[in-house]
Amino acid sequence: MRGMAYFCFLSATIYALAGMAMGIFMAASHDHSLLTVHAHLNLVGWVSMAIYGLFYHGVPTVAATRLARTHVAVATTGLWIFIPGIALAVLDITEGPAILGSLLTILGMLLFTVRVATARLKPA
Ligand code: HEM
Ligand code: HEM
């Protein structure tokens, strides 16, 4: 078991690779119509997931809890629905997945907020 921080960091780097590849594709094709997909893949995927990883790395006792596992599971599921959902919404196909994905994404942040608020952190 490599732990929650490893999972968060590894997923974050994969989202960064996908987001940057998409950025290069947008730049090369001069087609920026899916800019919002690129922005949120990088910011909710790479940046937010890396911050979760940093927190769980810094507070390993909290990383092993069920609340932490639930938080990361909800955040990951949310992202995997949210990102393609934004593309479907921008392309005017359907808004359903973007709505569901965004609600799961904010639920994930709420669970993280509870995890942070109830953690016993040593004073620096
Ligand atoms: C290889 C790396 C990257 C490339 C080639 C790239 C390329 C692009 C391109 C072509 C746009 C569209 C610009 C426009 O239409 O105004 C864009 C927008 C954006 N990118 Fe990237 N990007 C890269 C990495 C990143 C990363 C790592 C992040 C965040 C951590 C990021 C965040 C954003 C944001 C927030 C926007 C929207 C900016 C706005 O609202 O105008 N990008 N990127
Ligand atoms: C539940 C989560 C979120 C929802 C529903 C959401 C929704 C949106 C919407 C509707 C836009 C306007 C898009 C447009 O004008 O076409 C937007 C833009 C933007 N959001 Fe988010 N957002 C979320 C999370 C975040 C987070 C966590 C970040 C940063 C860490 C972020 C950064 C940005 C940026 C930089 C833009 C401007 C670039 C763009 O148009 O894509 N968002 N967001």
TrEMBL record:
Gene3D superfamilies: Cytochrome c oxidase-like, subunit I domain (1.20.210.10). The keyword S-adenosyl-L-methionine does not apply. Keywords: Membrane, Transmembrane, Transmembrane helix. The keyword Mitochondrion does not apply. The chain crosses the membrane at residues 43-65, 72-91, 97-118. It comes from Rhizobium terricola. This is Cytochrome-c oxidase.
